[in-house]
Amino acid sequence: MDVELVVVGALPQELVQVLNQTYFLHLLATEPQLVLPEGKSWLSMIAHSRLTPQTTEPVTLRDSVQRAVHNAFWSEALEALAGSISSQIDRLKLLLLDVKEAICPLFPNDHPILVTLSAPVPPTASPLMSTKFLLKDILVALRERAAPARDSIIDGILADLDAPRSPTSITTSSITSELALLIISTMKSIFALADAMKTDLNEFVVGFMTESQMRAILVQQAKTREKELVLEVWGQSGKDGKERVQEMWQAWVDELEGHDASEFQPRDKWIRRLIRALASTKPVSCTIPNLVSTDKSVQDAAGGNELPPQLLFSVPRLLYAQNYLQALVVAASLRSLTRLPAESNSRSDFMDRVWTLLEAEIEEEVSSATGSKIVNFADEVIRARRLISTPDKQEEDSLRAAVDRTLQYGDPVFLLLQKRMLAALAHQLCEPLVNNASHRSAPDQMQTGRTVGQRRPENHRPPPVMPSVKGFEDPVLVSRIEDIFGRLRQHVEWAHTVWFHNSFSDVDK
After folding, report:
1. Quick one: which of 117, 160, 268, 333 could link to 100 by a disulfide (CB 3.0–4.6 Å)?
2. Angle between the N-to-C axes of helices 371-385 and 393-406, in degrees from 0 to 180, rounded to the nearest 10
3. Cα(259)–Cα(467) distance, rounded to whole angstroms?
4. Which domain of life does the protein's organism represent (predicted)?
């Protein structure tokens, strides 16, 4: 299963990486079976690389800039600490505040080391030496709260802090410079140690979470990251892209045609607009702003079936659904050529064989049937027809021609069956979303073990199911339609909760 977004053109490598990481989170939250290895849990996916691929190479421009800024910061700090006593005191106050902020989450508020760091710096004739002793106390306090695996690291820092110094000269300036360098080096180590201990603490807490708790956290993280990234990518001139994506969404929805389009509620309207996009022979896509060009050939290459930014991370799976729906219509069209009676046991056998061929095309992302596939479909139709009659050569040739026509998107039978199926899907997808958990006033089971009565809320309704669609009654097709309906409903619910639940309400009014 490919977990990378497919984009056309050149994007900055750091943006591609962030997009792919966010898409992985999206899949983990919406269709985890696609990315969870067999036998692995949500917890194992979190623990492994903390959801972010690890690399030893600097992969972003931000990393390079941050390193340069950090180096300049420490160089300036070292220069200040090697200067006059007043310069040392002023800079040490700021540095110790940074140290306190870094280690604060690792201690209770009343811990002596935090109390000491919160107090004013006492007068001293040797600020650097006093700070050296304070840093030693900080390291000892950190060692008490660190995981055993960190002890050797802390012991090494302490040993370096206590090591006797042998300056090349005994001048005051050389001793001051060496001590300043030691202070800076130790503070850097404390910052790195604090980050490592926070990671240890987070992983410890994560380890005690249930799978359901873990999934809830991941889903929320995926929603937040997805929305923030889309707004950032579509933002202009340093502003967030909220207004821009709202306008693009509304323009896309307003393309819905039909005399009764204005009668739909906003939610129903965008769902029907999505179904219309999936009915197109052009693949759905969503072009990243960086790729938009004034060159018409580049714009045409985008595919002409653009979805709004809110659906960016759903596009790959919606493209899969688009191919899946077309395969269902092809299967139903071919079935209509067999003339098998409804009670025939061979009918499902025929559909199983045909669907196997079609499913292979979906997985291979073939946009249209090849010549070899058409021959295979025709052979299956003729094989099924022979169960009820003995077609002659002319009739077989006629059937092969009919199969060829049926696989054309402009075929009347194809269009009729497609219209029926998509209308049924749109109707069921427009059924209101129901969050049963929001109606509960008490848990299903009390801590004492007693259960709460199973009274249904007045506005409770079961989730919608797909009714039978004329022309798609075969059990194989019924099962596949239910499957794709469930997937599409997942995408609808996801977009609703990410973009329209307590946000963007002006679009969804």
Report:
1. 117
2. 130
3. 26
4. Eukaryota
What pTM did the predictor assign? 0.65
Residue-by-residue DSSP string for 381-398: HHHHHTTT----HHHHHH
Q: How far apart are CA 30 and CA 430, in angstroms?
A: 19
- What's the rounded Cα separation, in Å, for the pair 184 and 297? 57
Q: What one-character DSSP code corresponds to residue 439?
A: G
- What is the dihedral sign for C-alpha 445, 447, 449, 453? negative
User: What integer is the mean pLDDT of 132-145?
Assistant: 93
Alpha carbon dihedral 383, 385, 387, 391, in 10-degree steps, equals: -100
Of the residues 207, 233, 268, the one at which a domain ends: 207
Q: Could you report the per-residue pLDDT of 323-358, keeping only the tens digit for each?
A: 999 999 999 988 888 776 555 555 558 888 889 888
- Cα 405 from Cα 409, distance rounded (Å): 9
DSSP secondary structure of 280-339:
SSSPPB---GGG--S-HHHHHHT-S-BPPGGGGGGHHHHHHHHHHHHHHHHHHHHHHHH-
Domain-terminating residue out of 189, 207, 225:
207
Query: Is 289 inside any structural domain?
Result: yes
Whole-angstrom Cα distance, residue 423 to residue 420? 5
Distance between CA atoms of residues 15 and 347, nearest Å: 50
Phi, psi of 203 (to 5 degrees): -70, -30
- Asked if residue 246 belongs to a domain, the reply is yes
Nearest-angstrom CA–CA distance, 422 and 416? 10
Residue reference for tokens 């902020």: 101
| Per-residue tokens: 338 | 């067999």
| 283 plus 381 within the same structural domain | yes
Residue pair 17/59 in contact (Cβ under 8 Å)? The answer is: yes
